Amino acid sequence: MVFPIEGSHWINMDILLQALHSRGHAITILRCSKSWYIKDNNSYYNTITVQVEKAFDQKFITKIITETIEYERGSLPLIHFLHLTFGMFGTFVEAHETVGAFVSAMLDDQELMRNLKDSKFDLVLTDPCWGGGIILAKYLNLPLVFNVRWLIAGEGHLAVAPSPISYIPITGSGNTDKMSFFQRVKNMILHLITQIQKHLVVKLIYQKICDKYLGPDNDFDLLMLNADIWLMRVDFVFEYPRPTMPNVVYIGGFQCKPAKPLPQHLEEFVQSSGEHGVIIMSLGTFVSELPADMANEIAAAFAKLPQKVIWRYKGDRPATLGNNTLLVDWMPQNDLLGHPKIKLFVAHGGTNGVQEAIYHGVPVVGLPLFFDQYDNLLRLKERGGAKLLTVNTVDKDNNFLNAIEEVLTEPSYRMNMQRLSRLHRDQPMKPLDTALFWIEFVMRHKGAAHLRTESYKLPWYSYHSVDVVLFLAGVALLM
Amino acid sequence: MVFPIEGSHWINMDILLQALHSRGHAITILRCSKSWYIKDNNSYYNTITVQVEKAFDQKFITKIITETIEYERGSLPLIHFLHLTFGMFGTFVEAHETVGAFVSAMLDDQELMRNLKDSKFDLVLTDPCWGGGIILAKYLNLPLVFNVRWLIAGEGHLAVAPSPISYIPITGSGNTDKMSFFQRVKNMILHLITQIQKHLVVKLIYQKICDKYLGPDNDFDLLMLNADIWLMRVDFVFEYPRPTMPNVVYIGGFQCKPAKPLPQHLEEFVQSSGEHGVIIMSLGTFVSELPADMANEIAAAFAKLPQKVIWRYKGDRPATLGNNTLLVDWMPQNDLLGHPKIKLFVAHGGTNGVQEAIYHGVPVVGLPLFFDQYDNLLRLKERGGAKLLTVNTVDKDNNFLNAIEEVLTEPSYRMNMQRLSRLHRDQPMKPLDTALFWIEFVMRHKGAAHLRTESYKLPWYSYHSVDVVLFLAGVALLM
């Protein structure tokens, strides 16, 4: 049984579900009636649809995107930070409230819940960025597998493994794993804010549902930490090394695969680039257009290049667009990245695109917009594989053109991405196969309790041995 | 290049070396002229022999064994503990001094060192329970791979990964991963003692060698933490789950393999047991005999059983020995454990034997003597697969006979061991293949720096964010 999330998270989950289906598993998906991405019954899964009034959809994302770009371009960094942290918290809570209403409607439907109980599922697979799957697994008393990078707020890693904030950069901090004192201060402040946000959302929404439907003494955070396996959508070619746990399995890049041949018209366009090669640009699923002045600046920069350009862009045709640039509504991104003529990828820094760039070893000029995109791209920049721009400077002083020319002419960018590609591909098992192995492991053994510590059930003062240290200090003083 | 350790550690390393040889790698071993286990040139490795006066040998082990059994049988637990902790520290330092002398002799031989530098090895493989390989890797500037469970003192895990002492039992504490308050106090005290012992041995021996041969600013502990890959000789079927790091690879049970047919005389003896089956007993490589009264008690207990018994024992034939018991000098332990007629394994709790018992799913009666043996067996007992005896009570009140009869008649022991066996065997890749993959990974990429945090280079107050918390508290107070 799968309790998925909308948007780009669903795109990832879908790949896993198709692979599970091809191994003969029967899949049932819980979706709400206003689901944005998750279609009704499909050839490889069944759906159970719960009627809701409102759902997480384009409206929330558009609001976030528009406001973020506006603030990023028009404000001081501090104002931008305050807006991100506090101004958007309302939108964030509102989005989780739609999830809460969906989960409550589901648990209220007693016939549905009886059917689910009778169906004897092997496990619940969920993305814990929303809390619904966690509550459902407990209600049905089923093993729980996460397809995870983010929790309700903050990274999954920070909750499941010991995570010294001194060298683990908090998303949004713009820090790497090597920080100055004041970077560490900023990291700590952001960590505390994220934890408070998570605590508030859990308290306002998910804990109430636990109390109502699961009975007393079901702490939502403990239910979350009780998951059998965390399939973590990173690997340590992309992510900075950090402590981990035995039940965390790294599947970063599981969506990557060798390039297929391009459609004929694209192949012809690519070949027409001659020795100069091709640049591709995409700002992801959600961002299909940009403010007109920014689009014009980008188009003008592309027009000055000898390369051909394929640009995924749905907005009005920029006035400055050159003959070398092809605007497309959609492009086979993975197949293009794997094409030998592709010299450069202008990317927004979503996880999928960054992983595909690593897999194919293509250097990147990054134009991050929101969420984890800056931090994702920072990881490539740190390894010498990308150059980063910001929304508020991309259209000034030829920044965009200069960045592209630097990455095209300086060979180290490509060499570094090729090195990351070699490291990423040199694994004992393909990440998708690893994910399938561990999902099936949980089915075979009805969980993976032997890989999970129960340390999170200790009170914090015992976990950190504060009581023991005070006791020993007391004895020493007495003596 | 391999810098191995003597005794049972060598037996483990040797299995890895044979596998490396069979994959076409050339292996050179550094040994001392008085080496106890490590033979001169062999069909699958070359040796370089360094002349020494004294070496770690049977003498040290015999001293440890004799004193331990004597103290365990004759003293109060506190005296026994004090003896183990302080009384034997001299023997421990003396053993490491022989290693230090060996390493110094090696580094003093300038022609040898020049040859080693010219030989362009791909990596140094060592067991960091002795410090020689770590220093050698730095001297030759080579990538470093550990085949590890123990460091100079204490477990490798405790040094490389964040290890809350509140739920990670210290070896020798007799604790599990769930402890009462006073068990946690004991755990903390033992942890501190172990750390002090380690610090003293490093300071007295290995740091001096670093200062003399590697030049200033080469901290031995940092050189150790700089290893590329830690091949850890446990897995989480045997070991309690705990935090880990990306460059720690679990190879527990890599020495296990399916049983081969028994020699004819043993097969006939085993088959003669009929439906009752066979018990096997071994106290490991080092302990070939026991005090006469204890041996008599054990033999008398065996004589009362309907089972046949194969007992690896080199001491005088006990007077009470029954017709059903076969004394042998050596036995094919793995092949016997994999034989369907074997009902029970009386073991001392060395890692090899415990892993083989898990692999073949055979229940255990444990008679631990020293080192990690009690703690190893405790892990089986906790999972319901073993019954534990102690040296000071084994010969009283029919304890031995009762334990054997309980494990033979109560089916849960075998069922639990079979469950552990299923979990252990259900891995994406065989542990030996995993070890080979990561050794070759380090060869292919000249290290694995991307999997290693550099967090250990932070001062402790920064690592734990003490400075940041004090700063933020100061700011809050000022405001």
From TrEMBL, chains A, B:
The keyword Glycoprotein does not apply. Its main location: membrane. GO terms for cellular component: membrane. Its EC number is 2.4.1.17. It is a single-pass membrane protein. GO terms for molecular function: glucuronosyltransferase activity. It is found in: Membrane. Keywords: Glycosyltransferase, Transferase. It comes from the Eukaryota. It catalyses: glucuronate acceptor + UDP-alpha-D-glucuronate = acceptor beta-D-glucuronoside + UDP + H(+). CDD domains: GT1_Gtf-like. InterPro entries: UDP-glycosyltransferase, UDP_glucos_trans, UDP_glycos_trans_CS. PANTHER family: EG:EG0003.4 PROTEIN-RELATED (PTHR48043), UDP GLUCURONOSYLTRANSFERASE 5 FAMILY, POLYPEPTIDE C2-RELATED (PTHR48043:SF48). This is UDP-glucuronosyltransferase. It comes from Seriola dumerili.
